[in-house]
Amino acid sequence: MGKQPVRLKAVVYSLSPFQQKVMPGLWKDITTKIHHKVTENWLNATLLLTPIIGTYSYAQNYKEQEKLEHRY
């Protein structure tokens, strides 16, 4: 009932230097994929970007107003 060590084989993945097409499916029909992602997730993107853009715009406007207020 002693413990016996188990030899594990290491698996190494690599690309052949002669392999030319690494990710051919990534660029295939890219415009349709982008259109699908945008139309599918426009609400989530809007809900994420609206507060960020609004806060940035408010901060820039506030800074500009402070600058103009202390001008004279």
Automatic annotation (TrEMBL):
UniProt keyword list: Electron transport, Membrane, Mitochondrion, Mitochondrion inner membrane, Respiratory chain, Transmembrane, Transmembrane helix, Transport
Keyword Transmembrane helix carried by entry: yes
Position of the signal peptide: none
Xref: InterPro entries: Cyt_b-c1_8-plants (IPR020101), Cyt_bc1_su8_sf (IPR036642)
Entry membrane topology: Single-pass membrane protein
Biological process, per Gene Ontology: mitochondrial electron transport, ubiquinol to cytochrome c
Keyword Mitochondrion: yes
Main localisation: mitochondrion
One cellular component (GO) term of this entry: respiratory chain complex III
UniProt xrefs under Gene3D superfamilies: Cytochrome b-c1 complex subunit 8
Subcellular location: Mitochondrion inner membrane
PANTHER family: CYTOCHROME B-C1 COMPLEX SUBUNIT 8, OS06G0175900 PROTEIN
Family membership: Belongs to the UQCRQ/QCR8 family.
Name this protein carries in UniProt: Cytochrome b-c1 complex subunit 8
Species in which this protein is naturally found: Rhynchospora pubera
